Amino acid sequence: MRRVVLVPLAVAALAACQAEVTPEEKAMFDEEAVAMVEQANDSEPPLLPVTPEPILTPDIEQHDMYGASCSYAPGTSLGARVIARQADAFMKVEGEIIRFAADPGARELPFATRSLYNGRVYSLRLEVEGEGAQSGDEVRDYEGTISLRDRWGRVVYTGTGLVQCGA
């Protein structure tokens, strides 16, 4: 019971100590508060690097990634980290498949893939070098680079390696 009486008394004492705020002072305080919120919203969060995982056969089956495409694998790895098609591309991050939409205005790469794909959180840029070498009936091998950017345009992953394009 004692606490219930003390809280209203403390509030009343504080209210009595405060002077009336003029409209000009209130406007100034409001401007400062708005500026602080805008500054907090404009600041970029810390850079969080991403490590793509290999896209496995169950992922390909589940997300219907069949058809003409280019598969990007870093270094000497054969595990594709990106599968790019004419209309979309896929990457696996933290066990989840991320789907990207092709940018129709981006440069066209082999097998009607694109150099830029956009997603909700990331954008994916692809580069293919040279004419490639025939490695199968309908497969060409290229040297390529992938880069993943966050919504602020910062690179969170980049890799160079084998790109296999085919039907």
% residues in beta strands: 35-45%
What's the main sheet like?
8 strands, antiparallel, barrel
Q: What gap, in angstroms, lies between the N and C termini?
A: 79 Å
Write down how many β-strands occur, each being a DSSP E stretch of 2 or more residues: 8
* Residues in helix, %: 25-40%
Number of folding domains? 2
Helix segment count? 3
Using the alpha-carbon principal axes, give the shape.
elongated
Write down the overall mean pLDDT.
87
Q: pLDDT under 50 segments (min length 5)?
A: 1-14
SSE class: alpha+beta
Question: What are the secondary-structure elements, in order, as H or E?
Answer: HHHEEEEEEEE
How is the largest sheet built, in terms of strand order?
1-2-3-4-5-6-7-8
As a whole number of angstroms, the C-alpha radius of gyration is: 27 Å
Signal peptide: 1-19
Protein name: Lipoprotein
Keywords: Signal
